[in-house]
Amino acid sequence: GQQLNQSPQSMFIQEGEDVSMNCTSSSIFNTWLWYKQDPGEGPVLLIALYKAGELTSNGRLTAQFGITRKDSFLNISASIPSDVGIYFCAGPPYNAGNNRKLIWGLGTSLAVNP
Amino acid sequence: DTGVSQDPRHKITKRGQNVTFRCDPISEHNRLYWYRQTLGQGPEFLTYFQNEAQLEKSRLLSDRFSAERPKGSFSTLEIQRTEQGDSAMYLCASSKQGYEQYFGPGTRLTVT
């Protein structure tokens, strides 16, 4: 089935560093959602993007809706140990219709060395 | 303000047994979703309810799987004759009108 491509697959950084990750699709998306998932827990919504070119921040997190509408980016500034987890992008495919079904990437695993 | 809750959090069962999971969505959310997630993967869509109506089912949802949302509030997901391949995290999410879905903590199923 359709899937979003996330890059990088994993990252290991030092505390205080900035982090960048992205999500790409071969088809157009009208909405991009970024989630964080801790081990053994459900995903937590971080940021939602609804318009091409949109740049939205949530604390140290900033996400952008790509101009082509086929990609999105998430940046984390000044990382801290609690940023550890798996970051997923998700969005409704072009043929989602009314059901709001989401397609998900495979995630970017982030590890932070204190 | 309570979020999405799921019960149980963990379930260990023997192959061939039936299991049932419960999801209580955020109270004003009329849409409810079930996903399945295995290690190293993102959540995979299983089924979706708008109020009490089940509007879509994934082909992943075999005949052994059934979901209900009888009064448009809580939902149950039942797996009959469990198989080892059913071992996964089962996630429930709810939403209002938009695409933003809010997830519960999940039910971890282990089939031995």
> What is the typical, i.e. mean, pLDDT of chain A?
93
Low-confidence stretches of chain A: none
Shape, principal axes of CA atoms of chain A: globular
Topology, number of strands of chain A: 11
Ranges of chain B where pLDDT stays below 50 over 5 or more residues in a row are none
Fold and architecture overview:
The complex is a heterodimer of chains A (114) and B (112). Chain A has no helices and 11 strands. Chain A is an all-beta fold. In chain A, 37% of the residues are buried. The termini of chain B are far apart. In chain B, strands 2, 4, 5, 6, 9, 10 and 11 form a 7-stranded mixed sheet that branches. Chain B has a 4-stranded antiparallel sheet with strand order 1-3-8-7, with no helix packed on it. Chain B is 0% helix and 50% strand. The interface between A and B is medium-sized, with 24 and 27 residues.
Key words describing this protein structure:
heterodimer, A: mainly beta, five-stranded antiparallel β-sheet, 11 strands, 0% helix, 49% strand, B: 112 residues, mainly beta, globular
How is this fold's topology laid out?
The complex is a heterodimer of chains A (114) and B (112).
Chain A (H helix, E strand, L loop, with lengths): L4 E3 L2 E5 L4 E6 L7 E6 L6 E6 L5 E4 L2 E5 L5 E6 L8 E7 L11 E2 L3 E6 L1
Parallel strand pairs in A: 2-11
Antiparallel strand pairs in A: 1-3, 3-8, 4-5, 4-9, 6-7, 7-8, 9-10, 9-11
Chain B lengths: L4 E3 L2 E4 L5 E6 L6 E7 L6 E7 L2 E5 L7 E4 L6 E5 L8 E8 L6 E2 L3 E5 L1
Parallel strand pairs in B: 2-11
Antiparallel strand pairs in B: 1-3, 3-8, 4-5, 4-9, 5-6, 7-8, 9-10, 9-11
